[in-house]
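Q: Focus on the shape:
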Amino acid sequence: MEKQQDRSKWRVFWEENWLTLLVVLVLAGAYVFLRTPGDAFASLESLQSELRSGSPTVIEFYSNSCSICLVSKPKVDALERDLEGQAEVLRLNVKEDVGRALAGRWGIRGVPTFVVLDGAGEVAYAGAGAPDVEAIKAAVTAAVD
């Protein structure tokens, strides 16, 4: 009798909550798929030496707790593929030490923020919010020429 009541409780729970459980599973899966692993730098100095490499660099300041950052990831992935050989694309998580330090130094106030540096390390483009892929590509092209 007790087992039958337990099964009945689970059946009622499932009937009342199946949609909520499905949404939670879908959102968890989307987060795992869309989160950005980012670039790992041991220190701010190692990052800055990378920025002075002589070629244009696109930097994305992001956070995995930012919905716009998560939704923009496929666009940034495509941008990285499109710019291969023309510019380095770096992804800096503002929740990690190096990303937080550079964001603070450059006055980055929100995520996502995209910055394009020319080969000399000068800012050629800066934009906050969802990536303007065409403007970023144009800034890289101008920095290469």
